[in-house]
Design brief:
The protein has three helices and no strands. By secondary structure, the chain is an all-alpha fold. It has a single domain (about 5-85), classed as Ribosomal protein S20 (Methane Monooxygenase Hydroxylase, Chain G, domain 1, Up-down Bundle), CATH 1.20.58.110. The longest helix has about 35 residues, at about 5-40.
Length: about 90
């Protein structure tokens, strides 16, 4: 357990950050699932709309330090490839 006042404050801050990060991570996963669900229905327009909605949130997770930039790029690329495959 933290003993000094500074380390107690750090422990409190860590709890708050963890809950905020978990919430944001859950939100972006939900957006990704919505894109995958739209792809599974084989509806190009819905999938494209879901991808357009999800992409900014994936990028936002990078700036907040929740997702690595390469992972974000990989996720967006794979989702986009799947959506484009529906069109063709």
């Amino acid at each position: 357990m933290a003993n000094s006042a500074g380390s107690r404050k750090r422990a409190r801050q860590a709890v708050n950050r963890r809950s905020q990060n978990a919430s944001l991570r859950s939100m972006v996963r939900t957006y990704i699932k919505k894109v995958r669900a739209a792809i599974d229905t084989k509806n190009y327009d819905d999938a494209q709309a879901a991808l357009t909605a999800a992409a900014p949130f994936v990028d936002k997770m990078v700036t907040k330090g929740i997702m690595h930039k390469n992972k974000a790029a990989r996720v967006k690329s794979r989702l986009n490839a799947a959506v484009v495959a529906l069109k063709g």
